[in-house]
Amino acid sequence: MILYPAIDLKDGQAVRLLHGDMEKTTVFNDDPAAQALEFVEAGCDWLHLVDLNGAFAGEPVNAAPVEKILKRCKVPAQLGGGIRDMATIERWIDKGLARVILGTVAVENPDLVREAARAFPGKVAVGIDARNGRVATKGWAEETDVMVTDLAKSFEDAGVAAIIYTDILRDGAMKGPNVEATAALANAVSIPVIASGGVSSLADLQALKSCGAPLNGAISGRALYDGAIDLGEALKILKS
Q1: Could you give the C-alpha distances from 151 to 49, 69, 134, 178, 231, in angstroms and in order?
Q2: CA torsion angle for 22, 24, 28, 30 (degrees, to 10)?
């Protein structure tokens, strides 16, 4: 399994939100590129980036810090937030992004996901953010009637590289991931699934690794910043 350190960008800073609420923000670093480099130098093989402002605006807002990260860090990075048209997808991949994450458009314009996955094999992931089993969009602000598994299964033949599954009620709360729901999703589809939301301890990582489902990896943010997860130990657990 891969550990994806999360760098959530708001107003040019690396932050974490509680339950996806933009009003409940903790700033962890004024220099996101320096933070990213710290994760890479500690041994991380991937970076998970989120343009929080972009998720609400529907277009990239924190492009400058993302570009700095891509220039300074020589590991692949995936980015979500405000990527809702082909031109934006092409622009990010041209700038060296390894994988774009499509969330809102996966619900509102699934044909775009399919088109992008065909155009850029291995470089398109679907972000499924859920509250009580239902998919939320537009920076988690809008809840739909779409069920998580139904959305995931609809992309089985699309060629997407991964599904990033986030339980919103666990995100940033340091209460542990929704292991059961994540495992159920991973066992329901053939697409690689990455766990996100609430990963707050080494025990959480161990639980995900031994959940009985073939998870690709796990995303953690606040716990890495707070020191609740020792990065070196985490990497040992997931790579063993």
Answers
A1: 23, 31, 10, 18, 32
A2: 50
Tell me if 6 sits within 8 A of 218, measured CB to CB: no
**Total Cβ atoms within 10 A of residue 118:** 11
User: How far, in Å, are 80, 129, 224 from residue 20 at the CA level?
Assistant: 14, 10, 18
User: Can you tell me the distance from the alpha carbon of 93 to that of 103, in angstroms, rounded to the nearest whole number?
Assistant: 17
Q: Are 82 and 102 in contact (CB under 8 A)?
A: no
The answer to whether 26 and 16 are in contact (CB under 8 A) is: yes
* Tokens 């934006």 -> residue: 88
What is the C-alpha R_g of the chain? 16
State how far the alpha carbon of 8 is from the alpha carbons of 25, 66, 177, in Å.
Answer: 10, 10, 18
Rounded Cα distance between 80 and 55, Å, is: 8
Whether 157 sits among the annotated catalytic residues: the reply is no
Q: Which of 21, 31, 51, 129 is catalytic?
A: 129
Read off the pLDDT of residues 86-130 as tens digits, 9 standing for 90 and up: 999 999 999 999 999 999 899 999 999 999 999 999 999 999 999
Catalytic residue check, 129: yes
Number of alpha helices (DSSP H) and beta strands (DSSP E) in the chain: 11, 12
